[in-house]
Amino acid sequence: MSVTKTLTVRQATMRDVDQMLEIINQYAQQGLMLPRTKLSVCEHLQSFVVAHDGESVIGVAGLHILWEDLAEIRSLAIAEKAKGMGVGKQLVLHLVEQCRLLGINRVLALTYQKAFFEKCGFRVVAKETLPQKVWKDCINCSKLPMCDEIAMIVETATA
Ligand SMILES: CC(C)(COP(=O)(O)OP(=O)(O)OC[C@H]1O[C@@H](n2cnc3c(N)ncnc32)[C@H](O)[C@@H]1OP(=O)(O)O)[C@@H](O)C(=O)NCCC(=O)NCCS
């Protein structure tokens, strides 16, 4: 597990963008997550963190604030070579801590990765309980009519 020895989780920079896109869009092509354009990553760069192993970006995650008490983890993806080494969990816990420091009480994930997010302290919630604002960006998603993603939440105070 050499990757964890030099692992850094930090704010994303413009120099990371191409590697971030490569990781995200590889999974988007498999239908596991939404694709991102270079423009959208650049525009939202401040909301992204990356995991870096000293040589390259091996993980990426974004945080989107939805409301005063709710933020969503988006575009979470770990490079194939680094999966299963705790990198995803570190990125998620980093963003949850960021939310706590920002005074945001709850963090949301819309995901197919139920077991992974449970390991990060999240629990499943009924989609109907979420504010309508959550679905604003779903308008461009081909899965909108029959979205089968699971809604999961963690309270930042208890994470
Ligand atoms: C899902 C994903 C982010 C997990 O990242 P990861 O770095 O491989 O996961 P970690 O090594 O941090 O795993 C943390 C824990 O979750 C568990 N876990 C991870 N993926 C799992 C899975 N698919 N099923 C069950 N458990 C899983 C691990 O065993 C580990 O458990 P432990 O704490 O008891 O050791 C990564 O596999 C990925 O990028 N998948 C493709 C893109 C994707 O689906 N993104 C999510 C969009 S919401």
UniProtKB/TrEMBL annotation:
<dbReference type="Pfam" id="PF00583">
    <property type="entry name" value="Acetyltransf_1"/>
</dbReference>
<keyword id="KW-0012">Acyltransferase</keyword>
<protein>
    <submittedName>
        <fullName>N-acetyltransferase</fullName>
    </submittedName>
</protein>
<dbReference type="InterPro" id="IPR050832">
    <property type="entry name" value="Bact_Acetyltransf"/>
</dbReference>
<feature type="domain" description="N-acetyltransferase">
    <location>
        <begin position="7"/>
        <end position="151"/>
    </location>
</feature>
<dbReference type="GO" id="GO:0016747">
    <property type="term" value="F:acyltransferase activity, transferring groups other than amino-acyl groups"/>
</dbReference>
<keyword id="KW-0808">Transferase</keyword>
<dbReference type="InterPro" id="IPR000182">
    <property type="entry name" value="GNAT_dom"/>
</dbReference>
<dbReference type="InterPro" id="IPR016181">
    <property type="entry name" value="Acyl_CoA_acyltransferase"/>
</dbReference>
